[in-house]
Amino acid sequence: MYQDYAYLIVGLPILAFVLTIFLGWHLPKGGGFITVLATFAGFILSFGIFKEIYPNDEIVHQSMHWFASFNAGILIDPLAIVMLLMVTFVCTMIHTYALGYMEGDPGMARYFAEAGLFTAAMLGLVFSDNLLQLFIFWELVGLCSYLLIGFWYRKPSAASAAKKAFLVTRVGDVMFLAGIILLYTNMVKLNLVLPEGAYLLQFQTIYDSLTLIPPDQLTWIAVLLFGGAVGKSGQFPLHVWLPDAMEGPTTVSAMIHAATMVTAGVYLVARMFPLFYAAPNGLMIVAYVGAFTALFAATMGLVMFDIKRVLAYSTVSQLGYMMAGLGVGAAMGAFSVGVSMFHLIGHSFFKALLFLCAGSVIHAVGTNDMREMGGVLKHMKWTGLTMLAGSLTLAGFPLTTGFFSKDEIIVTAYEHGAMGFGWLPYVFAIVAALLTAIYTFRLWFLTFDGEARSDYHKHESPWIMLGPLVILALFALFMGMPTQENFYHYVGNNFEHYGVDFDELAVIGGHHVEHAAHVHEPFIIKILPIIIGVGGIIIAALFYSRWKRFDPGMVTSEGDPLRKILLKRYYQNEIYTLWFAEKVVYGIALVSNMIDLKIIDGTVNKISAISVGFGGSLRKIQTGVIQNYLTAVVLGLAVLLILIQLASMGVAI
Amino acid sequence: MVPLVLYVLLASAMFTIGLYGLLTQRNGIKLMMCVEILLNSANINLVAFSAYLPNANGQVFALFSIALAAAEAGVGFAILIVLYRLYGTIDLDNINALRW
After folding, report:
1. Cα–Cα distance between A231 and A6 in angstroms, integer?
2. In B1-100, where does DSSP find H-type helix?
3. TM spans, by residue (chain B) (predicted)?
């Protein structure tokens, strides 16, 4: 019964967008409660649908003709429903929190309108039943992120961060679109006879025709689609926009980093998992890029002093884990979709929590710089404790959600190595796990522990902000244990609804493994993540907490080149902006400009100059003296009369 | 009765005089007069043929034509007066503001 109203999951937030953008100015709190209610209604609907389809393992599919060979449709399968539940739930929490956080901002109505649209776009992306519709919502997500990152558009850094986010993700979006076009042309070439109500770009049709498309084409499509995911999910080398996206309000960062924006890329790869699986080397690229990003971003998180920047790099790193989790599916099959999605869901809870806590601290203290904080726990007990919960689970402390989800990825990465697919993802993942624990607790200790290092305001945030924190903290701590196994199987079996035969696809992809070859990981591998997680927390405590035994200066000093590289973020800015943008792209732009001005414009100008000159000399005939015209008329008439006369006399003319 | 050919000769002579004036003169009023002569040569033809046929239609046309000529002369002279006020001359060679 709920599934008949599935369209309302997106419809209500869009309605909230329309209402708040036009009427928000006249409503208390910018009409924010409309957005909260619409998102919450979306959660109720999603939950209702989940209750209906979960017991019998059904899927919901509704579709209508749109134009030509395209359709618009709703597809709610296990993969989509978990995303819908997570997005609506986390967004409800974030919007509620924003009611308190954005209090007094003159742009409140605009904020809630854009936030509502952002939520709607992400939900629409999740339940699309075809790639084209997914792409449309994907672009809408990009637009909303641009609007929200640049929410304080009078601030130059916010405006430029918004532009950066838009342009960098655009690189990915163009690749995504190219991937769709390449897939579409390949599908058209197959001359499929489609059953009634089926369309070319529907996921079902795509899954069905994977065996028919040439494998080298599949790899190209996979690489291009992954390019889109790399841009959206902040994977190396297109991750540079994500740390800068901090310029918006903290709630926007929470939305982008947890629920809405960056998970879209992971979701895309998960959604197209059979394609990646069938494409030779497809998943290997995903695994290596993901694992490298996980480690790469974690190293930068170690040295940052801006509290939101540390969290941003941790997001990039965790997204790397999710990508790696999908990538190791070459060895694990569809099970890895469950593993990776579980980390995505868990991560969105604790990353939203961490960002909202950071927002609460910034709200009270009035600075982003951790060097000016310290000892905040004394004044903000609830914020501090909920943030501790988030940090524990991010660091992978045993029995928290993050522990289950991240460890499973690390273990699958181990099996990936043990089955002979390459050890690198495992090595990257396990080192990144250690770094994660260290930087997370460095952040927590620097902020909440020790003595106050500056004279900041001391007050706890209002309950409208703390309520969501507590709820999210409970989920971040305890969601993992009871749901883990069911989740893996429920989402891992997602593609059985479409009759995807992974064995057959593995043969095409060239990574077929006998099931007997399944490895049993040694005990040490199973407990290594625990040791690493707890060890990282202890290391951070020894350096930064009140039980300090070592000084960070002992390991590194001001002039340390390694530290400098990390603080400079591997000189990415220098490479991307100064070298790539200003030298290479600017050079290309100069040459193109020259070609445009000299050759293209030159040709057009020459042609027009010729006709203008010819016309100029021709207009001299028009003397403007009536007598001249009249003379011509009379002479012409005379000649005509003479000719007629001659003709009537029988003279051959 | 005067033979028809004399009327036609008169009309041709008037037409030629009018045309000659139109082609050679520069003075606006002289041009107007030439146009009237042209018109009247046509009127003479109309009346002459009408009387000769005999059919009254031609004479009716001639009356219309005279009325039209009067209106046309009114408009034409009004334009010439305005031109004189603007340029201080009615020599059409000097009125060339729209020429290239």
Report:
1. 29
2. 4-24, 28-52, 57-87
3. 6-23, 60-84
**Are the Cβ atoms of A630 and B92 closer than 8 angstroms?**
no
Q: Of how many residues is chain A composed?
A: 653
* Residue A551 DSSP SS3: coil
| Residue of chain B whose Cα is closest to the Cα of A626 | B23
One domain for residues A161 and A307: no
* B97 reaches A (C-beta below 8 A): no
Residue type (1 letter), B31: L
pLDDT digits (tens, 9 = 90+) for A30-89: 788 888 999 999 999 999 998 888 888 888 888 888 887 788 888 888 888 888 999 999
> Are A168 and A271 within one domain?
yes
The residue segments making up the domain with residue A484 are 283-564
Q: What are the CA-CA distances from residue A37 to residues A15, A99, A108, A162, A300 (Å)? A: 11, 12, 16, 28, 38
In 3-state terms, what secondary structure has residue A71?
strand
Q: What's the pLDDT tens digit per position in A443-476?
A: 888 888 777 777 777 777 778 888 888 888 888 8
For A137, the token pair is 């919502």
Q: Is residue B17 one of the residues assigned to a domain?
A: yes
Among all residues of chain A, which has the CA nearest to that of B24?
A627
Q: How far is the alpha carbon of B23 from chain A, nearest alpha carbon, in Å?
A: 5
Transcribe A431-476 into DSSP letters. Answer: HHHHHHHHHHHHHHHHHHSS---S-----PPPHHHHHHHHHHHHHH
Task: Answer yes or no: is B99 within a domain.
Answer: no
Query: Does residue B85 belong to the interface with chain A, where contact is any CB pair within 8 Å?
Result: no
Which of residues 9 through 48 in chain B touch A, CB cutoff 8 A? 19, 22-24
Give chain A's domain count.
Answer: 4
| Token pair in block for residue A576 | 């991307």
CA angle A268, A119, A127 (to 5 degrees): 45
Residue B75 domain-assigned (yes or no): yes
